[in-house]
Amino acid sequence: MPAMHLENRVVLAAVGRVSRAIPGTRVDGVIRRIVRLGDGARLRVYTPATPSGAGLLWIHGGGLVLGAASMDDRFCGDTARQLGVVIVSVDYRLAPRHPFPAALDDAHRGWEWLTFHAGELGISTARLAVGGQSAGGGLAASLVQRLHDEGAGVAAQWLFCPMLDDRTARDRTRDAEDHFVWSNRSNLVGWRSYLGAAFGTDDVPRYAVAARREDLSGLPPAWLYTSDIELFHDEDVAYAQRLRAAGVDTTLDVISGAPHGVEAWAAGSGIARSLLKRARRWLGHALG
């Protein structure tokens, strides 16, 4: 898979349209349906044949400017089937057309839908997790912070190579690094598209950038993975260390030699299969 460079806004718009049109994949033993929230946001709901009573709100990746929930059909379907977890995946609005707080608000609406319909879905509101990959992992971390402040109970946060800190993109010395899949130049496009004039300043809005939050105490148990050769390694490790220092039960899984998001585009590889096995085992334990 080639590196992605999104400096050209025409290319960005074209790739965004294509990514939203991805048809998705169905998984045997899992019923998938689509719920429309309005304003362009949708939910993909995955219901396993034998539900365990637990639920997961999932948020896809794409640098805040690309992607669609359908990209994660296989991942969500397999997770739902293996763990018996009902999964609600958010098809959120994308920047730059929809900057902050659109994506986070859509994720929050997904959480509200999940909790409101918990009874009919056969799940307990005491057994709900929030997770995401890449930009979706950053949105998941921000959503968990917002829900904590609102007094909502989240059982666990499940963060795959999350995009957590706009200050990485602000560091122009990192542009020369040859990061496979997601470069710092692409990172800059993503964060600027999402934050606008607030990017890299001290005036970033609350919940816009997960790593900017100072007090992480009281947040739910976290599982976070990153790779030792990817762009987000330093910010991910720093966030995990801060969670631990704040008293949050945190599992940090650092894999070696794998580019960003390997579990998404090379799910059949040995390193991805091993990672997903550990990740799902942790989530299963966290949700009881």
Note down, in words, how this protein is organized.
The protein is an alpha/beta fold and 288 residues long. It has one domain: Alpha/Beta hydrolase fold, catalytic domain (Rossmann fold), CATH 3.40.50. 38% of the residues lie in helices and 18% in strands. It contains ten helices and eight strands. An eight-stranded mixed sheet has the order 1-2-4-3-5-6-7-8, sandwiched between helices. A hairpin with a 2-residue loop joins strand 1 and strand 2 (41-48). Helix 3 (102-116) packs across helix 5 (135-150). The protein starts with 8 loop residues before the first helix and ends with a helix. Residues 10-21 have low confidence and may be disordered.
Keyword list:
8 strands, 10 helices, alpha/beta, 288 residues, eight-stranded mixed sheet, Rossmann fold
Write the layout of secondary structure elements.
Blueprint: H1 9-20, E1 30-38, E2 41-48, E3 55-59, H2 73-83, E4 86-91, H3 102-116, H4 118-121, E5 128-133, H5 135-150, E6 156-160, H6 166-170, H7 184-195, E7 222-227, H8 233-245, E8 250-255, H9 262-265, H10 270-286
Parallel strand pairs: 3-4, 3-5, 5-6, 6-7, 7-8
Antiparallel strand pairs: 1-2, 2-4
